[in-house]
Amino acid sequence: MTQSNRPVEDAFAASLRTSDLTDKQQAVLTACLALFSRKGFDATSTKDIAQLAHVSEGTVYKKYRSKQGLLDALLAPLATVVVPRLAKEFMGEIARNDSADFRAFLDFIVRDRMAFAISNRQLIRIMIGRVLNDPQMLTTVLGQFSDAITETIEPILKRYQQAGQLVDWPATTIMRTIASTVIGTTMPCILLDTADLDIDSATAEVVDFLAKGLSPGESR
Question: What is the CA radius of gyration of the chain?
Fold first, then answer.
């Protein structure tokens, strides 16, 4: 498991430590993240949150008023601080695991992101629901990834293109193609509790599909 696949909770805790929230308020949001990720938003009660945070239910309601208020307070730093931070760490992992072979590059990205998506499926499901009601959150997240692609990924992809291993498309188009394929493969597991995914088999299939589809010969 790479550094960028560390628990989201760690990055979230780091963001809370730099906030102006009290210790009890931080404990409440930390409990929300753990419970929403494990049980889902609907199945989590404020009593559950209070017990895990070691505070009274009155303390939970004092600042956040409702469970929806808790969700809003949780997702805001996730979108603006945690996701960009994890994205930056992942880009760093890509640079450190740079390979001369494009297929190996694909294998690293696909396997890493599939593992991340499956281990954080409940939280991703919650964020998907929020994005549908707040498109600005999606714009914020995608903007962070666009900057990271330009700074880190584009030089790597250009080298594969110069070596004749990769179709001559813009870096954003290539990464969007990779991302959409990974998302399409993992989405059933994210949305359906009964679905499962063999990451090794799925990675092999997706890498084979992308390696063929993104090769210069296939693009003509």
Answer: 19
